[in-house]
Automatic annotation (TrEMBL):
Domain Tetrapyrrole biosynthesis uroporphyrinogen III synthase: 271-501
GO MF terms held by the record: uroporphyrin-III C-methyltransferase activity
Keywords associated with the record: Methyltransferase, Porphyrin biosynthesis, S-adenosyl-L-methionine, Transferase
GO biological process, one term: methylation
Keyword Methyltransferase: yes
Keyword ATP-binding: no
Superkingdom as given in the UniProt entry: Bacteria
CDD domains: HemD, SUMT
Pfam family, one: HEM4
Name used for this protein in its record: uroporphyrinogen-III C-methyltransferase
EC numbers for this chain: 2.1.1.107
Tetrapyrrole methylase domain segment(s): 7-220
Length: 516
């Protein structure tokens, strides 16, 4: 009989920004059979787990039954005994106020193998994103992390003695206990700390909706009440809070606080979303299309053999590159089958995609439309007469491309290395933000995504949507479609590339602010 050996990885996810997970933590997630996760975990991290991994939510949800610690322990033990690789994903660091220690003790007692992978704890991450260093040689050399969750009426003994902490610790960081701020600050004041000591509260630190308020030990609890601060929030008391004025950075990024929708095909990772997030925006991805492999890869592969008969193969997107190589590799081939064939790509991102397969593009378009790319290819290549050219994917301008190439005497072969179908419905995240009127703008990077967006939204034109939302377009073909559908474009990218679009959106908001 084989003995199944499961293993549990107790992983810290960081407090909000999914990029703050450690490399080791992310590697573990990619190998998970089961992910058991808490409330504050970013959904994006869950996408790292394999598609067939079991995801078990064990956090609290308002008004719903949530799992008690004993139940969680039981699930972990059961899954581990079934031989699974389990990721127990916890917010921040698993051992800082996270009950991770209790879970580790249970596993040790049950003789279950485990590893603990630390995470960036909320105090460290949120203070950094708010521009408040927890220590500074001129201001303070000590910091304490305290829970504000304990019943604050307890006097000293087992519980936190706020009066003692008041004067012996430089920076006091309070986790949890938003509703106890009044009592906590009063007790620190009673302990003899100067009422003018600067204090800050950071709500949802490290996220694009982070909110920070700054006051003094004397005023901060009332400010929190007035601003209706709610969890997850952290309170920082200490002179270091003064430094925020000089070193705050996260909230100063050009798109901070903007909620932008990015339309994209389902399986593509959105580079635009990445670029906008890097500029501080909250991005809601809206897949308009679903991309599927061709029904019969082997037949398709045979149809285009041998690849060295083509003078050129023309790619107009990273998706085309990905699916072309899927077909080639599934049929037992590899990059060497392309030796002797020249490769033309529409733009730099497509050139980067093909580089992943060890191939340098021989011709790269200037990042404009596929038709511009073909025109410049024709101009640059003196004669394409009688040359065979393969276009392995649908692009918005394929008919034009084929006709232009035929005019100069080329033989064009078109195949579809993938199939496109509409996405089933708008994503829930979009729906929630849309209904609450929280969306600032939408970005379109192709004319097909404009029409697919309207179809999914059940709208006839863009008119009503446009009333309170900005529309951004990557270039003239997309813009023409938007105008055709009664939309008004707030800005069109100066450079018709993803980077160009992200920069244009920043400039737009710096000049204009929001529409609604
Ligand atoms: N293990 C976690 C802490 C769990 S206790 C860690 O190491 O960070 C939960 C508390 O952490 C919240 O009530 C809040 O005080 C703090 N917290 C977690 N994420 C936060 C965030 N993004 N912004 C502000 N506080 C946060």
């Amino acid at each position: 009989m084989t003995v199944l050996k499961g293993k549990v990885f107790l992983v810290g996810a960081g407090p909000g920004d999914p990029a703050l997970i450690t490399r080791k933590g992310a590697d573990c997630l990619r190998k998970a059979d089961v992910v058991i996760y808490d409330r504050l975990i970013s959904k994006e991290l869950l996408y790292l787990a394999p598609e067939n991994a079991e995801l078990i939510y064990v956090g609290k949800r308002p008004g719903e039954h949530y799992r008690k610690q004993d139940e969680i322990n039981q699930i972990i033990i059961e899954k581990a005994r079934a031989g699974k690789t389990i990721i127990r994903l916890k917010g921040g660091d698993p051992l800082v106020f996270g009950r991770g220690a209790e879970e580790a003790l249970v596993m040790a007692a049950a003789d279950i193998q485990f590893e603990i992978i630390p995470g960036v704890t909320a105090a460290v991450a949120t203070s950094a994103y708010a521009g408040i260093p927890l220590t500074h040689r001129d201001w303070t050399s000590s910091v304490a992390l305290i829970t504000g969750h304990e019943a604050p009426d307890k006097t000293c003994g087992e519980s936190v003695c706020w009066e003692k902490l008041a004067t012996c610790i430089g920076t006091i960081v309070v986790y949890m206990g938003v509703k106890n701020y009044e009592k906590i600050t009063t007790r620190i004041l009673n302990g003899g700390r100067d009422p003018q000591t600067p204090a800050a509260i950071i709500y949802a630190g490290t996220t694009p909706w982070q909110k920070t308020i700054v006051g003094t030990l004397h005023t901060i609890a009332q400010q929190a009440h007035a601003e209706k601060m709610k969890p997850p929030a952290i309170l920082i008391v200490g002179d270091v809070v003064r430094l925020r004025e000089s070193i705050a950075w996260h909230e100063k990024r050009p798109l901070f606080g903007r909620r932008l929708v990015v339309t994209r095909s389902r399986s593509e990772k959105s580079r635009l979303a990445e670029e906008l997030r890097a500029r501080g925006a909250m991005v809601i991805e809206f897949p308009t299309l679903k991309i599927n492999p061709p029904p019969d890869m082997m037949t398709l592969h045979q149809k285009i053999q041998p690849l060295n008969q083509y003078e050129w193969i023309v790619f107009s997107s990273p998706t085309g590159v990905k699916y072309f190589f899927d077909v080639l590799i599934t049929a037992g081939g590899d990059s060497r089958n392309l030796s002797g064939t020249r490769i033309a790509v529409r733009d730099i991102s497509t050139a980067e995609a093909i580089k992943q397969y060890g191939i340098k593009a021989d011709f790269c378009g200037a990042g404009l439309t596929s038709s511009d790319m073909i025109n410049s290819l024709i101009t640059q290549q003196r004669s394409l007469k009688n040359k065979k050219i393969l276009i392995p994917q649908k692009t918005e301008m394929r008919t034009y491309m084929v006709q232009s190439l035929q005019k100069v005497g080329a033989h064009v072969i078109c195949v579809d290395v993938y199939q496109i179908s509409p996405a089933p419905h708008p994503p829930d995240e979009f729906q929630e933000h849309y209904e609450a009127g929280l969306i600032d703008g939408i970005c379109f990077t192709s004319s097909t995504s404009v029409s697919s967006f309207l179809a999914l939204m059940n709208l006839k034109n863009l008119h009503s949507f446009n009333d309170c939302h900005n529309i951004f377009s990557i270039g003239p073909v997309t813009s023409a479609k938007i105008i055709d559908l009664d939309g008004t474009i707030s800005a069109q990218a100066d450079q018709h590339t993803i980077l160009g679009l992200a920069d244009t959106i920043c400039e737009y908001y710096q000049r204009n602010g929001s529409k609604s």
